[in-house]
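F.,

This is the one I mentioned.
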């Protein structure tokens, strides 16, 4: 039975690396896949991993009908044995419904990869729809670690080095270097709640105000 599988996790948990691995394993077996992505760090129409691997992909813009794309592709006599959707958190809920239809009506496996929650620890709409519709949700086993060594389960956004919990869910084009540069860091829930990033923990450790008071 074809399946809609949601591989979920935090940032840095190796989602895109696994997506590339699945793509490699299946194409090595002579299978043909369609790779959808959106706003990959390597640029438009690319699926890349932090480990440096990259492959071509179909950039999915707003309003693109993913089911329609597959029907069109197949009607041209081309093959699609499986679909990979990376950065699936950025897809609209309707596009996740279209992926479910690809599984049910076209009988093609769909492997979606996405970050579950945003920097405010709220579900991305695309990820929420995947949790609702997926046949299986796999939490990735390559665990990202917080600076304290605990399992990192939350994504933090920093602006100019300071953690923020408000702002737009998706900031596009935040790659320019500046004092207000937006960064991301994975944290455990405890340190996400306390808004303690690696940098602020280091600063606190160096401050005499917070040195532990030794017993008299
Ligand atoms: Zn921590």
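My design for it:
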């Amino acid at each position: 039975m074809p399946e809609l599988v949601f591989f979920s996790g935090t940032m840095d948990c190796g989602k895109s690396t696994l997506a590339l691995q699945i793509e490699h394993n299946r194409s090595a077996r002579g299978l043909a896949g369609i790779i959808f992505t959106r706003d990959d760090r390597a640029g438009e129409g690319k699926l890349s991993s932090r480990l440096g691997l990259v492959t071509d992909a179909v950039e999915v813009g707003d309003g693109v009908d993913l089911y329609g794309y597959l029907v069109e592709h197949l009607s041209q006599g081309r093959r699609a044995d499986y679909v990979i959707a990376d950065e699936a958190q950025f897809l609209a809920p309707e596009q996740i419904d279209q992926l479910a239809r690809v599984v049910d009506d076209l009988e093609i496996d769909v492997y979606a990869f996405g970050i579950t929650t945003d920097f405010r620890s709220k579900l991305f709409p695309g990820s929420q729809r995947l949790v609702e519709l997926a046949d299986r949700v796999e939490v990735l086993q390559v665990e990202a670690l917080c600076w304290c060594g605990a399992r990192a389960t939350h994504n933090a956004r920093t602006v100019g080095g300071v953690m923020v919990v408000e702002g737009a869910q998706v900031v596009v084009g935040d790659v320019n270097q500046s004092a207000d540069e937006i960064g991301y860091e994975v944290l455990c829930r405890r340190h996400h709640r306390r808004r303690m990033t690696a940098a602020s923990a280091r600063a606190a450790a160096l401050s005499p105000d917070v040195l532990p008071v030794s017993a008299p």
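The two ends are 69 Å apart (CA to CA).

Talk soon.
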